Batch of 4 targets.
Target 1
Amino acid sequence: MSNALKGRLLAAAAAAALAFSSVGAAAQAASPDQIVGVWEAENGAIKLEMFDAGGSYAARMLYGRQLMEADGTTFKKDTLNPDPALRERSLEGIVFVTNLAWDARDRRWEDGTFYSGLTGRTMSVQAELVGEKMQVRAYMGAPLLGQTIVFRRVP
């Protein structure tokens, strides 16, 4: 391959990378309050309300398919909670995401805590807006070792 062709390919790759990163940056949140509102998982299994918790952001459970009793309308109890005093509470409306802090440089919410009523475990969580969708990643240890759920805003 000639040096001229290599140079053109390298320039084209650099231009494509720059264009891709510009699109990605434009799709991200511009302000911390953009996360506030009601969101539903793309598969309909979870519905939550993100809210300003005074210096950080949190989420309240509105619906969780796996958190429901067989009747489909009653929330299960928090029986796996490590705190015995909370094991009789309903999972309905619990604040299960706390302390999400806006990182203006990365344009996402980080360093939050996620409590799973299914397992009684607490994990780390971060959230990011990509276009019209919110990606929430819960993980233990490193973000690479987690799971991302994609949400869409609902009225």
Target 2
Amino acid sequence: MTDILICPKCSQENVYFDGTSNVCPDCFFEWSGEENEASSIPLDSNGAELKDGDAVTVIKDLKVKGSSMVIKRGTKVKSIRLTENPDEVDCKIDGSSIVLKTCFLKK
């Protein structure tokens, strides 16, 4: 198998086939090769489906690129907005509009 597999959830290349499904050790996401439509559903770090207006919590300290701002673990974010990319959500934190990856959020 010479193709490089990319995780549909976190977009990392550290993916392996365990005999029955593809596994990403970075975000613990498992999928078979036929599940193309499942990648269009936004999921949080625990696998729960995200919808517009949901309230989520940040599970890890995140540095904001281009800023000295740090989003602390446990920060609650209200009223998220889904984007065209199922791996990202748009939200407001401290008055700033920020795009966060869904793998760092939990419902």
Target 3
Amino acid sequence: MPALLKRFARDKAALLGAGLLGLLVIAAIFAPWLAPHPGDVADFHIERRLQAPAAAALFGTDRMGSDIFSRLLFGARITLMLAAIAVGSALVIGVPIGLVAGYYKNWVSDALMRIAEIFLAVPQIVLAIAIAQTLGPSIENVILALSLTYWPFWARLVYAETRSMRNEVFIESAVALGASPWRVIVLHILPNIASPIIVRTSIGMGATILTAATLGFLGLGAPPPTPEWGRMIAESREYLPEAWWYALAPGIAIFLTVLGFNLFGDGLRDILDPRTRRSV
């Protein structure tokens, strides 16, 4: 473990990603204390409406007169919560399906992967939009839409890794010694394929945040006046280009968050997966 940490510490891009994610977590946890105006992120202040960035409002104010910086900090909470629950739900669905389908060689495993392929045949964003539009705009429905459309990516990854691991000598030895299939899957296969799952989860968090922001931009996410980054960009369209700061701040927040998860995931892949490990 110390050797892996040292290798990770020498990867400047991975450290940048970890730093960005650290700032995001700090912003989400300490939003009530870091926000200059924590009590008015959902209130109207007509006298402060669409003010440019200044000392009183570092990122300016929005159409309601609320401080955009404060709304970004509270929006970080929503973003992290939404992505964590959606990705966690997709893992709970996809990983067991991939393990079962990869270990067993029967019609059940074939049927499970055919179902996953049906979901993968449609672009995730299109399917997520369709589900969210059917269910109606809310954070809960966005999480459900993302979970239902994202699990096949983990199922396919775990399926492929389990298939290759299934023929390893130590797996065949465990089976020959009388180990049950579930014991082999849980104690032998799953720990040995954990690395690609962790890497895929990190990168998947960034993709999930970007998709959630897209749904919010289309009006399918959290209803107003919830400080959700995608909706903030959507609300700013009619005030461009005069109120340029309105769209710029949440756009940069989304960009840096997705970049952080991607850089961090690439760094994890380099140190955890010997097939793609590079010298850093």
Target 4
Amino acid sequence: MGDAAPARVTSARWRSLDGSGLDHVTLAIDAERVVARGVVIGEQKGVRYGVYYRVDLDPLWRVREVALGAADGRGLHLLSDGQGHWATGQGAPLPQFDGCFDVDLSATPFTNTPPIRRNAWKTGERAELRMVYVPFDSFEPFVDGQIYTCLEPGRRFLYEAADGSFTSELTIDEHGLVVDYPSLFAREP
């Protein structure tokens, strides 16, 4: 066979600070792609959920495929060309998401990682992004504006909702995974 290096694998687990949820993700990185597989249990707007997610990214940390399945039978499958165009899993275009390069899954801090990993950040550098946001209570995605500002490269970022409704300072590890997300998530040791 080939001389391809084996995937580097790392895992992380977070608990929601309101006590309603737990998230576990395993990240496999090789020369061809990045694959995040995770499971989340929690509650949003009074709706309890159990969700499996898989986010496939290319080596530049651009989302290419998102697959979600809930314990109650709901599911969502989205494809991206990595250039800001999206389609259903069957290939039907979703022009309402044009210009979105990332997905934000409501109940996992993992989806903060791709925009952080994709860029070579300098202190004070800021990026305004459009995300395909997927709330786990409804599984009905919509566009969400988010702003990332690098406070300390490879270590700390300011996350802001573009509408000004939320701000949090994120601490990350050497893999770009959130360690501390004040008011929402705490990483389990």
